[in-house]
Specification:
Length: 497
């Protein structure tokens, strides 16, 4: 893999003036849980009101809605003749293949503001089915889609290679240069989330990608592209794994944008199916930063769309702003016990500080004094002889809800998972990675955590991820018996979260 610093320095880039603010997008991952508990990413839930502040006062223009509708009809609609993705199949590029494959399309209204389009292409020779499922919005100039590839034939497919969930040619219509707004991710440095700007002049090739297999290790996968002529575009890549994007400017007015999982090279067994990252586009018009315009208006339009259509609404309403209490003075939860948890709660209340949530962080399981020793997902019987239910009952009696930390991806040698199910673990030089692409491992994790949450009457599941999965998934790579491991692992991760 290329050095991440080199990936980020291929093109000219500069920090924007200090007066500009960057609205950090948050990817909302939600799913159904068989217990009565609602599952959410805590940071998204606890910052809803802060996201709402500053997102008002902007409105969509009819021209922006029309531009999105026109693009959607051409690329995703029933009479669409173009596609915004690409791949190679059996050594042949997709543009020369899809035109000869059987095409089918259907549309359905999901609600008053959303329409889902489904288009399939079927190879008559091998039975490969390419499906594009998109959602177009009526109240925002936004459209999103996900691709999937399924082997509907009786034998293994030829090799699928170089899948780009987004492959789009953009053509500027006026004077000036392209300007790409993007941001540093969270490499745990003082530069975390720093906004950046890259001028994409003639001949520029800018590559921006994740590192280590986690999506924000180096850069965020959210981009705001200002185009000459003021017909601009926000691009987002939704993928909790190793994504990559490339922005290639020609010597005229054109720009080619490609994005998706960084590498793909695999075949599919009969009946096997994989998906790509989700791509979202939002169209906006007007002069940008280089022309003295207000590009932050587009940021706030994006935030309004995200809040309106993506944030989880327990009970049908956005949750109010919350604050948490936690016993971090006990070395995370490594030294926590049933009794001292109650004592810390009492200490907060005695000072007139009533937390909305009590955050039980890493170390509540048997870990021998080291919270990174994960893989035995049970309360430490020495410190919590009755499990976590006495703590949650104590909290609920005082009107406080609970958060419990998990890091199911990491498996330390000697823990329950490593000993009882080594076949579920992808081992590296140090810790192992729970193979969430393995159906048996995935099923066990979902059932086990669901039972824990229900038994302990916990309110929020908080999932962390403190190791890079790419060395393990890339080392295994393309396994003929299981298709594309990195794709299936990331898909499993998304279903858990």
């Amino acid at each position: 893999m290329e050095d991440a610093a080199e990936q980020r320095r291929d093109g000219p880039r500069r920090p924007p003036p200090a007066r500009r603010l960057w609205a950090r997008p948050t990817t909302g991952l939600g799913g159904d849980c068989r217990s009565r508990l609602w599952v959410a990413i805590v940071t998204g839930v606890l910052t809803v009101n802060s996201l709402l502040q500053g997102a008002g006062g902007v409105s969509v223009t009819p021209a922006e809605l029309a531009a999105c509708a026109e693009w959607t009809a051409a690329y995703l609609g029933p009479a669409g003749t173009r596609v915004a993705f690409s791949f190679t199949y059996g050594g042949r590029p997709s543009p020369g293949l899809l035109q000869d494959w059987a095409r089918a399309h259907s549309s359905e209204a999901l609600d008053a503001q959303r329409t889902r389009h489904t288009t399939t292409w079927t190879d008559p020779q091998t039975g490969l089915v390419v499906r594009c499922v998109s959602v177009a919005y009526r109240d925002f100039p936004t459209v999103e889609w996900t691709l999937s590839f399924r082997n509907g034939g009786a034998t293994d497919t030829p090799v699928l290679d170089g899948i780009q969930a987004l492959d789009l040619a953009v053509e500027g219509s006026g004077e000036g240069e392209y300007l790409l707004h993007h941001a540093v991710g969270s490499p745990c440095t003082p530069r975390d989330y720093q906004p950046l700007e890259s001028v994409l002049g003639p001949g520029t090739r800018q590559r921006i990608a994740a590192a280590g297999g986690r999506p924000t290790n180096t850069d965020l996968s959210y981009f705001n592209l200002e185009a000459p002529g003021g017909r601009n575009l926000i691009v987002a890549v939704g993928w909790p794994g190793q994504w990559a994007s490339e922005w290639v400017r020609d010597n005229q007015r054109g720009l080619r944008v490609r994005a998706g999982q960084e590498q793909s090279h695999f075949k599919l067994l009969p009946g096997e199916e994989v998906r790509t990252p989700l791509i979202a586009l939002q169209f906006w018009h007007g002069p940008g930063a280089l022309a003295g315009g207000d590009w932050l208006r587009a940021q706030n339009l994006w935030r309004r769309w995200f809040i309106a259509h993506n944030l989880h609404r327990p009970g049908g309403r956005l949750p109010p702003t919350q604050w948490c209490g936690a016993s971090l003075t006990t070395n995370m939860m490594v030294e926590a016990t049933e009794e001292n948890q109650k004592q810390y709660v009492d200490a907060y209340l005695a000072r007139g500080l009533k937390p909305d949530f009590w955050w039980m962080d890493a170390g509540w399981y048997p870990c021998h004094g080291d919270w990174t020793c994960t893989g035995t997902w049970e309360p430490d019987p020495a410190r919590f002889p009755h499990g976590l239910r006495p703590v949650t009952d104590y909290l609920h009696a005082r009107g406080i809800r609970s958060i419990l930390w998990f890091e199911p991806e990491r498996v330390r040698r000697g823990t329950w998972l490593a000993v009882e199910h080594p076949e579920w673990v992808l081992w590296g030089d140090g810790d192992g990675l729970l193979d969430l692409g393995n159906p048996a491992a995935w099923r066990w994790l979902v059932d086990h955590v669901d039972a824990m949450l229900t038994t302990a009457d916990l309110d929020i599941y908080r999932q962390d991820f403190n190791m890079d999965p790419l060395p393990m998934t890339a080392a295994v790579g393309w396994i003929p018996a299981s298709g594309c491991l990195p794709v299936s692992w990331v898909s499993g991760l998304g279903l858990v979260a």
